[in-house]
Amino acid sequence: MCDLRRPAAGGMMDLAYVCEWEKWSKSTHCPSVPLACAWSCRNLIAFTMDLRSDDQDLTRMIHILDTEHPWDLHSIPSEHHEAITCLEWDQSGSRLLSADADGQIKCWSMADHLANSWESSVGSLVEGDPIVALSWLHNGVKLALAFHDGSVHIVHRLSLQTMAVFYSSAAPRPVDEPAMKRPRTAGPAVHLKAMQLSWTSLALVGIDSHGKLSVLRLSPSMGHPLEVGLALRHLLFLLEYCMVTGYDWWDILLHVQPSMVQSLVEKLHEEYTRQTAALQQVLSTRILAMKASLCKLSPCTVTRVCDYHTKLFLIAISSTLKSLLRPHFLNTPDKSPGDRLTEICTKITDVDIDKVMINLKTEEFVL
Q1: What is the mean pLDDT of the segment spanning 30-47?
Q2: Which sequence ranges are marked TM in the entry (predicted)?
Q3: Cis-peptide, bond into residue 7, ω within 30° of zero
Q4: Mind listing the pLDDT tens digit for each residue in 203-247?
Q5: 176 vs 27: CA distance, rounded Å
């Protein structure tokens, strides 16, 4: 079960959605101890959950979900014999490290680039030594802290000053209230036991002590009012950053209001056309995918989504056919067969294929 919520305007930190898996029996599925989760630059979330058999034996499971489709959960039997203590994605978001309390480390990678197919071909063992932390050395600007009272605090990494607070299970308290005056709960509260920020620091995932997954939106301005133009420039910069780096941009879309879509698409296209021809060729499919995902957010632009997806499909067909063509002489300095065909089709509008083929070296187009 997934409860999705629309973005709230102007909030510092609010709940985007909550996932609870009703098919999981509480008697067989239980949050692992310790609990670990990790968020990749492709906006895939990995977290741990133990599967208990009738004999009370535990199978250490790693679950992976796409934040855009959180109801599609993929589960991996990790083959770790002890509790998994750490999960960490690499810079590309295609490999995942897992480590356990017995010193075993596994490196998981996508099989055939599919998010629902994973394999572990590399591993290491430091026998008897529990792994308490590991990292691929990527950096962030914000730090997230979770407390036993159910609150989540975002602090600046340099000053450690609180930037935002979210209360999940209790009434909000003033940030400056002394800790000694806060009443202690009689029993253990439901609180987040593992957290991870997205790679743009605009969203945060947490797994609580009951195994429920929550995704929080983090305001780019951390509650400071931004005029519309400045907010658009900030979101545009982050979209361009994702386009160039190859990171997924789903967490940025959490903060895009329908009224912003048209302007963002236009400005994104303007920035794209300013680039060199070579860079435009590299980014051509990525900007189409980005425009399509933006246009889904507004009823005024949703009709364009099919156009962008169709163009992506045609580009894929064109690239496949061009890859099959070979020049008659491999060391020829001329343009490739695909480039010559494109140039001729641009000049000749006649639909008669024979008239087009007269201008081509026929042997290059026999597959």
Answers
A1: 86
A2: none
A3: no
A4: 888 888 777 888 988 887 765 667 888 889 989 999 999 988 888
A5: 41
